[in-house]
Specification:
About 55% of the residues lie in helices and about 0% in strands. It has four helices and no strands.
């Protein structure tokens, strides 16, 4: 008879987080950007996100004041894997 042990809760949570990221961010490069920039958190500021995206495509990081809707629209047009509402 084989006995199975449940994995530790922190391992289960980490695996679930990976599944959620894979389902929410379908682009592989986008997932890598999110994982690197979010540092395990489930949210980040616009400035943190915009900076991470720009760095990932080899652009200079954006200043703290980078928040306008127009800029977001431009970023979405310029970077195909960025699908943010």
């Amino acid at each position: 008879m084989t006995t199975y042990c449940r994995p530790p809760f922190d391992v289960v949570v980490k695996e679930l987080e990976e599944i959620i990221i894979e389902q929410c961010i379908t682009d592989e490069r986008g997932r890598e950007v999110w994982k690197k920039a979010s540092k395990g958190e489930d949210k980040m500021t616009w400035d943190e996100f915009a900076r991470a995206v720009c760095i990932s495509v080899g652009k200079v990081a954006l200043p703290e004041s980078y928040r306008s809707d127009r800029q977001m629209q431009c970023l979405k047009v310029r970077i195909p894997f960025l699908h943010v509402a």
